[in-house]
Amino acid sequence: MVAAVSRFFLYLLVTGFTVHISGMLYISDGSRFTTISNLTLFLPALILLVLDHRVRESLPSKRYLPLWVLLGFTVLVALFNPTSALSALDQLKTCFYILLYVIAIKILVDRNLMEKSFDVAFVIAGIFALVSLVYTFFYVDSNMFFDGQRIQKLGYKDYADFKNPIIAALYYGLFGVYGFHQLLTKRYSRFVMLVYGVCVLALSLYLYCTLSRGVWLGYGAAIGASIAFHHDQRSRKWLACTAVFAALILIWLSPMLLEQTDRGFSYRDLIWHDWLERLPDFWLAGAGAGNKFNICIDSGHCWAQAHNLYLQFFYEFGLGGALLLLFLIGSVLTRSLNKSNWNLPLGTIGFPLLVFAVLTALFNYHTVMSRPGVYWLVFWMPVGLVLSIGSGLRKRSEVRMHD
């Protein structure tokens, strides 16, 4: 009976996770998206946590300790810092959802379902990127590649509308990194390679059209990391052809690319300078969980965040929170370079995705303690993936050896 129930919720979980990460494109109603995610992702993860002792036994392990400490620290800040905008209960709820998100990833990795789920979501993202480009080109702006207008939505009704080009760039950029890495490291039929190649091209062109230079940096570095660590004799011919094709596209787009060099930091340098001037006021205890970094420049440009994950986290949670965040990132990055896990499914994708997350956090997103969405996909998904790789598989192999 328990096995049947577990199997049902496992199938529900893999469906829910796939819908959660791809549904941002086709579920436009926020409340409906939240309800679907709760019922098909977070609830099954919680039930499987209760039913499966292997999941429970792995969570207290040393690999998850930096995550536990970081999340616990944020709750303590919300509890004891009187200037926190969030209550300890609200912060605890957010941390609980993050844990369920990481647990869901672990369950899917242990059952060898994570790659299948992400492959489906990658193809869906590639199709939406392609349709967005085609629709925008024919119905909105035929000069979209050179007029400096930033794309952020499909253009038809409310589908794939991220409301912000940077968020759109983060979403499609992550899937572009994933697809490129899969093409580089896996063997596929010619048809699948063609489909994946078209998807990566569409995702890359969409990313270009967002004009999000910080995401461009993270995207290029992540792809460079994939090539540096995982190229082999088989992939070099494919890489050479890809490099020639990419060079031709860059030459074609070079007028707009060169124009972007004149945009400067888009006020980020002034925001960061103001953060530095305020540092003595919050460096030790932080301004409090959930507090906004409010700043106005030239009386007409106002923001409520530091435009940098590390600075915003430091602002809210102080020196201790910033150090714990960096320690978590460092420990996960170190683990992603453990070659003993590279022969496992998705064992090599963690490092490129983390490179993308870490670099884009410098310019393009400011929080990972918000509601589930694109920021979670960019940050917590690679963290959960790397922490999950090898754990369950190794335990099962050890059990077989003892038997």
Automatic annotation (TrEMBL):
This protein's name: O-antigen ligase-related domain-containing protein
Domain of life the protein comes from: Bacteria
GO terms for cellular component: membrane
Organism encoding this protein: Pseudomonas caspiana
Membrane topology, record value: Multi-pass membrane protein
Residues passing through the membrane, by range: 9-27, 33-52, 64-85, 91-109, 121-140, 166-184, 191-208, 214-231, 238-258, 313-334, 346-367, 373-393
Record domain O-antigen ligase-related: where: 200-326
Location relative to the cell: Membrane
Keyword tags: Membrane, Transmembrane, Transmembrane helix
